[in-house]
Amino acid sequence: MSQQKQIQLAKRPKGLPTKDVFHFETVDIPVPQDGEVLIQTKYVSVDPYMRGRMQDTKSYTPPFKLNEVIQGGVVGEVVESKSPQFEKGDFVLGFLGWQEYSTAKAESLTKIDPSIAPLSYYLGILGMPGQTAYFGLLAIGQPKEGETVVISGAAGAVGSVVGQIAKIKGAHVVGIAGSDDKLAYLKELGFDETINYKTTNDLNDAIEKACPNGVDVYFDNVGGEISDAVMNHLNRFARIPVCGAISSYNISTSEDIGPRVQTKLIKTSALMQGFIVANYSDRFGEAAKDLAQWVKEDKLTYKETIIEGFDNIPDAFLGLFKGENVGKQLVKIS
Amino acid sequence: MSQQKQIQLAKRPKGLPTKDVFHFETVDIPVPQDGEVLIQTKYVSVDPYMRGRMQDTKSYTPPFKLNEVIQGGVVGEVVESKSPQFEKGDFVLGFLGWQEYSTAKAESLTKIDPSIAPLSYYLGILGMPGQTAYFGLLAIGQPKEGETVVISGAAGAVGSVVGQIAKIKGAHVVGIAGSDDKLAYLKELGFDETINYKTTNDLNDAIEKACPNGVDVYFDNVGGEISDAVMNHLNRFARIPVCGAISSYNISTSEDIGPRVQTKLIKTSALMQGFIVANYSDRFGEAAKDLAQWVKEDKLTYKETIIEGFDNIPDAFLGLFKGENVGKQLVKIS
């Protein structure tokens, strides 16, 4: 067995991606060089952000290349090691291709511990979304007991974890989301107050009512008018982890206009900090341990949907845009 | 001698303040209570920001009250102490009234050392403007050798010190100001590049040319379109101390509209931090020591204009708006 399947980007989608965006190719299994390991793919993560990388525009991650293997979060097993950092049988998390086997430099991989949590969790609650929530909230937001934490995009993979961690830290937690179903879900997760920004007549007013003591931490997943409104309610020394700006993703820069933030920041000595989870990669282990512990203690609710079979990766990805998944969507490779 | 002169706010000015805004009153010299000291006024600071406090609008400092003594930065000598923290003959910096004598709680005063620098310096380069520059740049901006620091409002009392400290720290320093005279002054102070935002056709282009390696620190004194332009050139992990937004002071909130910053912060993992110098009051001594040392070593150029006589305080203040002062304007009380 020296050959394997891989999935390439055949063309750049317009609007909703379709199956013909993907191309299955049979290629040689690569041979690890010095300092590298060979990894057998166990779980593949499919995520909405990958849609963005299919487009040919500049961001903090470069676009996928046409006719090359698509890359994303993967959990795999080391089957051959030419690095002292890993042994055969180790499990790793990496940013790897949609293929059955990958080689990678040892330093680009994170060893993961299957005794702490199921392997799949390292692509969800213990992986990118969980880690993003963890570091954005705790390293930047730093909520103290009794403070008010507002989260936009609160029902998303990141926002729902942010709110639960904020509750663990003793904060008054307010979630903003766009449907009553989502609001009900947030209530289930223990959010104190929820706001449906689509049906609220006066967002400013709704925030004021939900935050009688003002806003100490605003975890911003969306940008746009929702953030404009929250910025009117900042307390002194408020912290704003800026995680996403989904309201801006589909409009041009020249259309993304709103109230300037400078005077609001000066009046409150508030902090806004943009971040991506990769900034904290050296503290991955610390976060995984805390998150796993909270899951174990049922303080952190986590849902995942797992489809089996390499060939089903495209369907799993396309399903994201039809709302087919409950919680994190993964593909298990047999 | 049990009476003294004080200057009260007689009415709120419209447009440029005039002399009839002020009223001289003779009042009793106050008697210090337990924990207080009695201070003889030596130097009074007159500052443009005080114009704002003459208006009845909300900000981080409340407006001056009508028919009460006007307050500002004062250096004085302790003439009677009912606090173990101070002795007769100590010199102090405080936020005190425009009057010949004041009482104040010991904890609201900072002891100053006349052996480090002339007393008057504690109201300028070692005082509010110098301290604002020091903490905004060093505590928030944290410039590293070889990094690029851009300063708006660069020729002001704060901006001109920021640029000089940034040079001391080995940065490439770019100043933005509004006249060629100011640009010449910045060059004298050692700024590497200067931009006249009033005569530059394309501010974006000018910033790009002045900052071939991008912007690591943007010390923002002005907000508005100048800041909108600088925000397009941020490097990864850029830091933006937000010190002032003078472009917004004379317009309504609903007019202060511009490009949203969220996506720019996310793409660069940049930090914006609003602040006022009072946030760092417990580190005043540390800053005063460094600033005094740099002045002594001629690394920091500092200009002051001193008028003598209590009765001349209103004229000194009104002169600020006629551009009569070179550098920091003070009044020495005989």
From TrEMBL, chains A, B:
Keyword Plastid listed: no
Entry keyword set: Oxidoreductase
Gene3D superfamilies the UniProt entry points to: Medium-chain alcohol dehydrogenases, catalytic domain, NAD(P)-binding Rossmann-like Domain
Keyword flag Oxidoreductase: yes
SMART domains (alphabetical): PKS_ER
EC number per UniProt: 1.-.-.-
Uppermost EC category: oxidoreductase
GO molecular function: oxidoreductase activity, acting on the CH-CH group of donors, NAD or NADP as acceptor
Source superkingdom: Bacteria
InterPro entries on file: ADH-like_C, ADH_N_2, ER, GroES-like_sf, MDR_fam, NAD(P)-bd_dom_sf
Pfam families per record: ADH_N_2, ADH_zinc_N
Domain Enoyl reductase (ER): 15-331
SUPFAM superfamilies attached to this UniProt entry: GroES-like, NAD(P)-binding Rossmann-fold domains
Entry protein name: NADP-dependent oxidoreductase YfmJ
Organism: Bacillus safensis
